[in-house]
Amino acid sequence: MNVQKFISMKGKQPIVLITAYDAPFARIANEAGVDAILVGDSLANNVLGYTDTLPATMEDMIRHTQAVRRGAPNAFIIADMPFLSYQCSEDEAVRNAGRFLKEAGANAVKLEGGSVFAPLIKRLVDSGIPVMGHLGLTPQSVNVFGGYRVQGKDEKSAEKLLKDAKALEQAGVFSIVLEMVVEEVAQKITESVNVPTIGIGSGRFCDGQVLVLHDLLGLNPTFLPKFAKRYTNLYEISVKAIAQYVDDVRRKIFPSEEHVFKSGGN
Ligand code: KIV
Question: Is residue 237 part of a domain?
Fold first, then answer.
Protein backbone atom coordinates (compact mmCIF):
# COMPACT_ATOMS: atom_id res chain seq x y z
CA MET A 1 0.00 0.00 0.00
CA ASN A 2 1.05 3.55 -0.67
CA VAL A 3 -0.73 6.87 -1.01
CA GLN A 4 -1.30 6.56 -4.78
CA LYS A 5 -2.64 3.02 -4.48
CA PHE A 6 -4.87 4.16 -1.63
CA ILE A 7 -6.35 6.89 -3.83
CA SER A 8 -6.77 4.51 -6.76
CA MET A 9 -8.99 2.23 -4.65
CA LYS A 10 -11.72 4.87 -4.57
CA GLY A 11 -14.88 3.57 -6.15
CA LYS A 12 -13.25 0.21 -6.96
CA GLN A 13 -12.85 -1.61 -3.68
CA PRO A 14 -13.87 -0.74 -0.12
CA ILE A 15 -10.84 0.39 1.88
CA VAL A 16 -10.51 -1.15 5.33
CA LEU A 17 -8.75 0.56 8.21
CA ILE A 18 -8.49 -0.25 11.88
CA THR A 19 -6.78 1.51 14.74
CA ALA A 20 -3.92 -0.13 16.61
CA TYR A 21 -1.67 1.20 19.30
CA ASP A 22 0.93 -1.47 19.99
CA ALA A 23 3.04 -4.14 18.31
CA PRO A 24 0.99 -7.29 19.07
CA PHE A 25 -2.30 -5.86 17.85
CA ALA A 26 -0.62 -4.23 14.83
CA ARG A 27 0.67 -7.66 13.89
CA ILE A 28 -2.80 -9.18 14.30
CA ALA A 29 -4.45 -6.41 12.25
CA ASN A 30 -1.90 -6.77 9.48
CA GLU A 31 -2.27 -10.55 9.42
CA ALA A 32 -6.06 -10.09 9.12
CA GLY A 33 -5.51 -8.14 5.91
CA VAL A 34 -6.47 -4.54 6.67
CA ASP A 35 -5.42 -1.99 4.04
CA ALA A 36 -3.94 0.41 6.59
CA ILE A 37 -3.48 0.88 10.31
CA LEU A 38 -4.34 4.14 12.02
CA VAL A 39 -2.48 4.93 15.22
CA GLY A 40 -5.31 7.09 16.49
CA ASP A 41 -5.04 9.58 19.29
CA SER A 42 -7.89 7.47 20.69
CA LEU A 43 -4.81 5.86 22.23
CA ALA A 44 -5.59 8.26 25.09
CA ASN A 45 -8.98 6.73 25.93
CA ASN A 46 -8.51 3.18 24.66
CA VAL A 47 -5.08 2.44 26.09
CA LEU A 48 -4.00 5.17 28.49
CA GLY A 49 -7.26 5.28 30.42
CA TYR A 50 -8.30 8.90 29.80
CA THR A 51 -11.89 9.88 29.05
CA ASP A 52 -11.12 11.69 25.78
CA THR A 53 -8.34 12.11 23.22
CA LEU A 54 -7.05 15.48 24.39
CA PRO A 55 -4.32 14.28 26.77
CA ALA A 56 -2.42 12.32 24.07
CA THR A 57 1.02 13.89 23.62
CA MET A 58 3.51 13.85 20.76
CA GLU A 59 5.75 11.56 22.82
CA ASP A 60 2.84 9.13 23.44
CA MET A 61 1.96 9.09 19.75
CA ILE A 62 5.55 8.69 18.55
CA ARG A 63 6.24 5.85 20.96
CA HIS A 64 3.06 3.97 20.07
CA THR A 65 3.53 4.54 16.33
CA GLN A 66 7.02 3.07 16.67
CA ALA A 67 5.52 0.04 18.41
CA VAL A 68 2.91 -0.39 15.68
CA ARG A 69 5.64 -0.19 13.03
CA ARG A 70 7.65 -2.88 14.86
CA GLY A 71 4.56 -5.10 14.97
CA ALA A 72 3.65 -4.56 11.32
CA PRO A 73 6.86 -3.78 9.44
CA ASN A 74 5.20 -3.71 6.02
CA ALA A 75 1.87 -2.11 6.86
CA PHE A 76 0.69 1.29 5.65
CA ILE A 77 0.60 3.28 8.88
CA ILE A 78 -1.15 6.59 9.45
CA ALA A 79 -0.36 8.42 12.69
CA ASP A 80 -2.73 10.88 14.34
CA MET A 81 -1.38 14.31 15.19
CA PRO A 82 -2.42 14.89 18.80
CA PHE A 83 -4.22 17.93 20.20
CA LEU A 84 -2.04 21.09 20.09
CA SER A 85 0.69 19.44 18.01
CA TYR A 86 -0.42 21.30 14.85
CA GLN A 87 -2.78 24.07 15.97
CA CYS A 88 -0.24 26.51 17.45
CA SER A 89 2.08 27.29 14.55
CA GLU A 90 2.75 25.94 11.08
CA ASP A 91 6.47 25.51 11.73
CA GLU A 92 5.77 23.45 14.83
CA ALA A 93 3.18 21.43 12.92
CA VAL A 94 5.62 20.61 10.10
CA ARG A 95 8.29 19.57 12.61
CA ASN A 96 5.84 17.42 14.58
CA ALA A 97 4.34 15.81 11.48
CA GLY A 98 7.80 15.11 10.13
CA ARG A 99 8.75 13.28 13.32
CA PHE A 100 6.09 10.65 12.59
CA LEU A 101 7.78 9.80 9.29
CA LYS A 102 11.37 10.32 10.44
CA GLU A 103 11.36 8.79 13.92
CA ALA A 104 8.28 6.58 14.09
CA GLY A 105 8.11 4.95 10.68
CA ALA A 106 4.64 6.22 9.76
CA ASN A 107 3.70 6.58 6.10
CA ALA A 108 1.32 9.48 6.65
CA VAL A 109 -0.28 11.66 9.31
CA LYS A 110 -3.90 12.49 10.04
CA LEU A 111 -5.16 15.76 11.44
CA GLU A 112 -8.60 17.00 12.40
CA GLY A 113 -10.23 20.11 10.99
CA GLY A 114 -11.66 21.89 7.97
CA SER A 115 -10.67 24.65 5.58
CA VAL A 116 -8.75 26.67 8.19
CA PHE A 117 -6.14 23.93 8.10
CA ALA A 118 -5.92 23.85 4.30
CA PRO A 119 -2.80 26.08 4.10
CA LEU A 120 -1.04 23.92 6.69
CA ILE A 121 -2.02 20.73 4.86
CA LYS A 122 -0.66 22.14 1.61
CA ARG A 123 2.61 22.98 3.33
CA LEU A 124 2.87 19.50 4.86
CA VAL A 125 2.19 17.80 1.54
CA ASP A 126 4.67 20.13 -0.20
CA SER A 127 7.20 19.11 2.47
CA GLY A 128 6.73 15.44 1.57
CA ILE A 129 4.30 14.47 4.32
CA PRO A 130 1.12 12.72 3.14
CA VAL A 131 -1.93 13.94 5.05
CA MET A 132 -5.29 12.35 5.78
CA GLY A 133 -8.03 14.82 6.75
CA HIS A 134 -10.68 14.27 9.40
CA LEU A 135 -14.08 16.01 9.31
CA GLY A 136 -17.42 15.69 11.08
CA LEU A 137 -17.19 14.86 14.73
CA THR A 138 -13.58 15.73 15.41
CA PRO A 139 -12.98 14.46 18.94
CA GLN A 140 -10.25 17.00 19.75
CA SER A 141 -13.01 19.64 19.55
CA VAL A 142 -15.40 17.79 21.86
CA ASN A 143 -15.43 20.78 24.22
CA VAL A 144 -16.52 23.10 21.41
CA PHE A 145 -19.20 20.67 20.19
CA GLY A 146 -20.42 20.13 23.77
CA GLY A 147 -20.39 16.34 23.33
CA TYR A 148 -20.01 13.60 20.76
CA ARG A 149 -22.79 14.72 18.43
CA VAL A 150 -23.77 13.56 14.95
CA GLN A 151 -22.66 16.15 12.36
CA GLY A 152 -24.31 17.47 9.19
CA LYS A 153 -27.86 17.26 10.42
CA ASP A 154 -28.97 20.61 9.04
CA GLU A 155 -28.39 22.19 5.65
CA LYS A 156 -25.90 24.77 6.89
CA SER A 157 -23.62 22.27 8.62
CA ALA A 158 -23.94 19.83 5.70
CA GLU A 159 -22.84 22.60 3.32
CA LYS A 160 -19.92 23.48 5.56
CA LEU A 161 -18.78 19.85 5.65
CA LEU A 162 -18.90 19.67 1.85
CA LYS A 163 -16.97 22.93 1.55
CA ASP A 164 -14.38 21.72 4.05
CA ALA A 165 -13.98 18.40 2.23
CA LYS A 166 -13.35 20.23 -1.05
CA ALA A 167 -10.85 22.56 0.64
CA LEU A 168 -8.96 19.59 2.08
CA GLU A 169 -8.94 17.85 -1.28
CA GLN A 170 -7.65 21.03 -2.91
CA ALA A 171 -4.93 21.28 -0.25
CA GLY A 172 -3.69 17.81 -1.16
CA VAL A 173 -5.01 15.27 1.35
CA PHE A 174 -4.94 11.69 0.06
CA SER A 175 -8.07 10.74 2.00
CA ILE A 176 -10.63 12.13 4.43
CA VAL A 177 -12.04 10.45 7.53
CA LEU A 178 -15.72 11.32 8.05
CA GLU A 179 -16.74 10.71 11.65
CA MET A 180 -20.38 10.60 12.77
CA VAL A 181 -21.68 12.40 9.70
CA VAL A 182 -25.27 11.66 8.62
CA GLU A 183 -25.28 9.09 5.86
CA GLU A 184 -26.70 11.26 3.06
CA VAL A 185 -24.14 14.00 3.68
CA ALA A 186 -21.26 11.50 3.82
CA GLN A 187 -22.51 10.06 0.54
CA LYS A 188 -22.68 13.50 -1.08
CA ILE A 189 -19.14 14.30 0.08
CA THR A 190 -17.91 10.92 -1.18
CA GLU A 191 -19.41 11.62 -4.59
CA SER A 192 -18.02 15.17 -4.67
CA VAL A 193 -14.33 14.56 -3.98
CA ASN A 194 -11.75 12.53 -5.87
CA VAL A 195 -9.97 11.21 -2.79
CA PRO A 196 -11.35 8.29 -0.76
CA THR A 197 -13.57 9.01 2.22
CA ILE A 198 -13.17 6.70 5.19
CA GLY A 199 -16.26 6.54 7.36
CA ILE A 200 -16.66 5.89 11.05
CA GLY A 201 -20.29 6.21 12.03
CA SER A 202 -20.98 7.85 8.66
CA GLY A 203 -23.03 5.19 6.95
CA ARG A 204 -22.68 2.81 4.05
CA PHE A 205 -21.56 4.97 1.17
CA CYS A 206 -18.06 6.08 2.12
CA ASP A 207 -15.16 4.63 0.13
CA GLY A 208 -13.89 2.78 3.18
CA GLN A 209 -14.45 2.22 6.86
CA VAL A 210 -12.38 2.53 10.00
CA LEU A 211 -13.19 1.02 13.36
CA VAL A 212 -11.51 1.39 16.71
CA LEU A 213 -9.80 -1.90 17.53
CA HIS A 214 -11.07 -1.94 21.11
CA ASP A 215 -14.68 -1.56 19.93
CA LEU A 216 -14.39 -4.28 17.29
CA LEU A 217 -12.73 -6.76 19.66
CA GLY A 218 -15.00 -5.99 22.61
CA LEU A 219 -12.21 -4.83 24.87
CA ASN A 220 -14.30 -2.13 26.50
CA PRO A 221 -17.14 -3.78 28.46
CA THR A 222 -18.86 -0.55 29.49
CA PHE A 223 -19.38 1.26 26.19
CA LEU A 224 -19.92 0.59 22.50
CA PRO A 225 -20.81 3.47 20.16
CA LYS A 226 -24.04 2.92 18.16
CA PHE A 227 -22.08 2.87 14.90
CA ALA A 228 -19.53 0.26 15.98
CA LYS A 229 -19.84 -3.50 15.70
CA ARG A 230 -18.39 -5.88 18.26
CA TYR A 231 -17.04 -8.91 16.39
CA THR A 232 -15.93 -10.74 19.52
CA ASN A 233 -15.80 -10.22 23.25
CA LEU A 234 -12.12 -10.22 24.13
CA TYR A 235 -12.85 -8.65 27.50
CA GLU A 236 -14.91 -11.63 28.63
CA ILE A 237 -12.57 -14.13 26.99
CA SER A 238 -9.59 -12.52 28.74
CA VAL A 239 -11.28 -12.38 32.16
CA LYS A 240 -12.14 -16.07 31.85
CA ALA A 241 -8.59 -17.00 30.82
CA ILE A 242 -6.98 -15.04 33.65
CA ALA A 243 -9.51 -16.38 36.19
CA GLN A 244 -8.57 -19.88 35.04
CA TYR A 245 -4.90 -19.08 35.65
CA VAL A 246 -5.70 -17.70 39.12
CA ASP A 247 -7.59 -20.88 39.90
CA ASP A 248 -4.83 -23.13 38.52
CA VAL A 249 -2.16 -21.48 40.66
CA ARG A 250 -4.30 -21.60 43.78
CA ARG A 251 -5.12 -25.28 43.19
CA LYS A 252 -1.46 -26.00 42.37
CA ILE A 253 -2.37 -27.21 38.87
CA PHE A 254 -0.01 -24.68 37.28
CA PRO A 255 2.92 -24.91 36.86
CA SER A 256 2.95 -28.59 36.04
CA GLU A 257 5.89 -30.77 35.11
CA GLU A 258 5.95 -29.59 31.49
CA HIS A 259 6.62 -26.00 32.61
CA VAL A 260 9.61 -26.60 34.90
CA PHE A 261 13.38 -26.67 34.38
CA LYS A 262 15.42 -29.46 35.94
CA SER A 263 19.13 -29.58 36.54
CA GLY A 264 20.83 -31.48 33.76
CA GLY A 265 17.77 -31.10 31.48
CA ASN A 266 17.30 -28.94 28.32
O1 KIV B 1 -8.24 8.43 17.00
C2 KIV B 1 -8.96 7.68 16.34
O3 KIV B 1 -9.17 6.50 16.67
C4 KIV B 1 -9.58 8.23 15.15
C5 KIV B 1 -10.61 7.39 14.47
C6 KIV B 1 -11.86 7.45 15.25
C7 KIV B 1 -10.82 7.80 13.08
O8 KIV B 1 -9.30 9.32 14.77
Answer: no
Q: What is the pLDDT of residues 87-124, one digit of tens each?
A: 999 999 999 999 999 999 999 999 999 999 999 999 99
Q: How far is the CA of 60 from the centre of ligand 1 (A)?
A: 15
Least confident of 26-35, 104-113, 141-150, 231-240: 141-150
CA distance 4 to 1: 8
Structural domain of residue 43, as residue ranges? 3-232
Ramachandran region, residue 65 (left: φ > 0; alpha: ψ -120 to 50; beta: rest): alpha
In this prediction, residues 164-185 reach a mean pLDDT of: 98
Taking the CA atoms of residue 114, residue 202, residue 216 and residue 56 in that order, the dihedral angle to the nearest 10 degrees is: 20
In a domain, 122, yes or no: yes
**Is 250 a domain residue?**
no
- CATH code, domain carrying 149: 3.20.20.60
* CB 40 less than 6 A from any atom of ligand 1: yes
- Arithmetic mean of pLDDT over the chain: 97
Binding site membership of 175 for ligand 1 (Cβ less than 6 Å):
no
* Known active-site residue 191: no
Distance from the CA of 127 to the center of ligand 1, in angstroms?
Answer: 24
Point out the ligand 1 atom lying closest to the alpha carbon of residue 139. Answer: 8
Q: How many domains does the chain have?
A: 1
Residue nearest to atom 3 of ligand 1 (CA): 40
Q: What's the burial of 42, exposed, middle or buried (CB within 10 Å: 0-12/13-18/19+)?
A: buried
Whether the CB of 201 sits within 6 Å of ligand 1: no
